[in-house]
Amino acid sequence: MASSRRRRRRARPVSSSDSLNDVGKALIALGALLVVVGVVLVLAGRVPWIGRLPGDIHIQRGSWTFYFPLATSLLLSVALTLFFYLVGRR
Length: 90
Hints:
Elements: H1 2-5, H2 16-44, E1 57-61, E2 64-68, H3 70-88
Antiparallel strand pairs: 1-2
């Protein structure tokens, strides 16, 4: 008897303006991300310790050089993970 009292909610139809709104928001977010990445790339040359952290692998043998920024990659990964976690929490 209790189930007969419940009313079903009707799903709101999705309009094309809702879809365009979502696409617009996604494009704005992508543009903002590109701006942030651009600023980071411009400023990265001015920060002397980026790419020279302890843990970055640098091997030089004669004219052959191998470089893998392991510690820098891990630090950047942690920073971006925290940033996106905090932004996504709303």
